[in-house]
């Protein structure tokens, strides 16, 4: 132990002081790796935070949530629930919820979908709430529950510039309604802060505004805490289930999280795959950097050994130093990650709003857990990275190093890294054949993710083999440069590995996105054939609950110039394994206009006949593992109904499932006259834009889009989803290219003696830096070539396995050749420029004097 | 052939070389003796154009080194000078043969001629059997043989050797000295050799002694 401290104090820390530039560089690499990972995590979490809130009421986490399998709960059932619970100290809090938006500005232009914020209107029993733990401000008197009064959070009041008494206009379904801010919810210590997108109202008032008297969406169940009532939670669950008679379902925290999770699956897929990349690239860079440290000190190690220090002590000292480095870099990385996350979150938030109308997150905070995790990951990686080189260094016979005075890395030859790489790739091929993991209705393509990880790692490591292929002709500069490639050090290998992984990832994602894009465009053209589309202005996103009244639909139908109107009705329904959309539409219209792209086509006029039949979308088929001809049990307000699957259609609009019924059947089962979407076909000669303007003018509570605009919007939103992806990918590639530069720089530092030798035998400074540029060129080309080849398979994996298993969408493979060629040229070009720069810098290095 | 006139050199205002003058004729071997730190390596570096003098003049084959650019100096080195170091300094990623070949490649000699010359010289210095080996696989004596071969392969006028036997056992050192003498004699190359050993000095025509930056 003494030895270890002595080595640390006398040698390691002194190196930090003397070679502070190198040390700083190393810290920067470590911190960058950690930073990217932390940033990704934070951005991911804050993006998801918006969803968790969706399921969380301001009563903080309730023990259970009751909701109907299909449609709303009836208010009168509350009495039965209370009766079932008997005298148990359990609170039942009914709630009704809807999404609302501020009305569109009175401009005539068509707006972008998602440009308007979406708020949540939550109706709860305010007086009941007052009696609860950490909930509604108990100290403030509930003001007179005046008509149309809402409570908002401090954050929302600040953002919108509202005060007590302010008037607020919102679109509820297709009406514009004016509300009054009755109070601002204070932040209560130790309770979750009220979300910034919430308008809280008294329950009866909310029911009235939503035209849903007597209905509630869910009931929160809160059992009072305390040791005296242990088992209360379970007991109340049993009682409530007994009384349900299929009318309501009981959901625990886990179910609610799963619900939020399934909504963001698409998005999380992106981020998951990308944080994988960050971790890998960061890890490679760390390995590389620490190997450099060990090599640089091999002489010192040899001297220590010759002085009688034990192998073990040297190894320990190195590991301790690595841990120390990891600690400092981890803290720096946390800071860096936090900064990066702020930028990422803004991009993420915009996408989330467009897709789900949910995220209010524009700021990512770093809490202690994550900060510690970041540091721990950094220290862990440093230790793992230092372990092997430290062992090699400590075990190398001192005489060999002292006698030779050679700085060349031997570890590069001992490690047959490529063999590991090829083995990892083969493992990936095997993993790709496994199916998804199914938990609570969520399908997680775990094996496919693992396959992606193994593939990325394997391709990176195997790519080092390409370095052997570089052959120089007559040119002495290239001969020298390529000789270094043919005997690559660990740092060469890891520089190539990092680059390969980043390029593989970028190529894979580019292939997936291009395939998506192509498939999407075809689908949009096919399924969006009406001239004008109408929805509630409140329906800014797929998960919105705002609807259009039957009266409004009739008005639209009666407008001059309208030839035909097709109405789509919608109801959220819960299958045992999770939510699905039940929809009703005019199937004759759909058949006539050929709106569906079939995965399994139905028979002609399938909706006639007595047996209930429905179409399902591909996602649901994948999720339930059901095909044409199978039966599904459809929950309706009147209980479960068996439905025969008539056909399966492709649907790239949502990754939840959809059950599409003919409209008569839908109305019969769900008693719902409100429309979710209205498609309008115009008479020949009628101008779509004129009609749209007229409709919009007459109905400020509606969103009206022409076909052209909606098609454009659909593509825009789709592309926006991937904008973050591109940005994060770019970070990966930039980090890898920077890693290449850093690797070369540290190689050059190690090679100072060699550079001096080159000068002595007549190399000009230009030739010496050209040699460095050629070396960088070789590394970059190897990384890019291996990355593109590996990326094609990764693209296939993402399309055929990851995407198929998580959303069940069939995509046609498309290779975006030009885009990838441009990336290759850019990366190789940057690689050369960076290396040439390092080469020039290296010519200013002075050689350590030796006596 | 080599003329050094009144050269002085300072490091951070500390004089290292004071008014040093010397001359070497073609094919002449000169030993430079002196205690550690007296400025021998510095003088060699100045002559090799790796370091610049503060005042005075160094002429190699009639050219004033001070008038040359960095690239010009590189050209002088690749044509006229061969260098041998105490610690060999072979390029670690090139084989013995490739190391020796490198100076010829720099001068742009045709491949066939180059290889012929390299092979002959390797035969001559006794390392033909190690031609494919990397420096890390060679012994100290072998490495210094390769270094000598690399220093003379392009038939320079002058070889600068900085303690070429300093890192070898005496028997191997003696062999290397013999080799160095023979090779320079055969090629008519001048040699300026820093050394601590009297034996090495005896292999030379002339001995210079240096003390605190002054040639005695
Ligand atoms: N780059 C340098 N910077 C500062 N001082 C130097 C440098 N190189 C050499 N010296 C000093 O110059 C003196 C002579 O060095 P050197 O020529 O290497 O001596 P020798 O080769 O005779 O042992 C030494 O005292 C050394 O400290
Ligand atoms: Mg010296």
Give a quick rundown of the structure.
Chain A has 851 residues and is an alpha+beta fold. Chain A has 27 helices and 23 strands.
Note down, in words, how this protein is organized.
The complex is a heterodimer of chains A (851) and B (216). Chain A has 27 helices and 23 strands. Chain A is α+β, with helices and mostly antiparallel strands and 851 residues long. Chain A folds into four domains: 1-56 and 260-407, no CATH class; 70-245, no CATH class; 408-529 and 709-845, no CATH class; 538-700, no CATH class. In chain A, strands 14, 15, 16, 17, 18, 19, 20, 21, 22 and 23 form a ten-stranded mixed β-sheet that branches. Mean pLDDT of chain A is 77; it is low at 50-60, 133-142, 355-361 and 403-414. Chain B is of the alpha/beta class and 216 residues long. Chain B has one domain: P-loop containing nucleotide triphosphate hydrolases (Rossmann fold, 3-Layer(aba) Sandwich), CATH 3.40.50. Helix content of chain B is 38%, strand content 26%. Chain B contains seven helices and ten strands. In chain B, α3 packs across α4, α4 (111-125) crosses α5 (140-152) and α5 (140-152) runs parallel beside α6 (170-187). Chain B is globular, with a radius of gyration of 17 Å. The chains are: A alpha+beta (851), B alpha/beta (216). Chain A binds chain B through residues 403-408, 410, 474-476, 479-480, 483-484, 486-487, 753-754, 756-767, 849-851, and chain B through 36-37, 41, 48, 50, 70-71, 74-75, 77-79, 81-83, 85-94, 98, 102-103, 105-106, 111, 134-136, 140, 150, 167. Bound molecules: adenosine-5'-diphosphate and magnesium ion (MG). Adenosine-5'-diphosphate binds next to α1 of chain B.
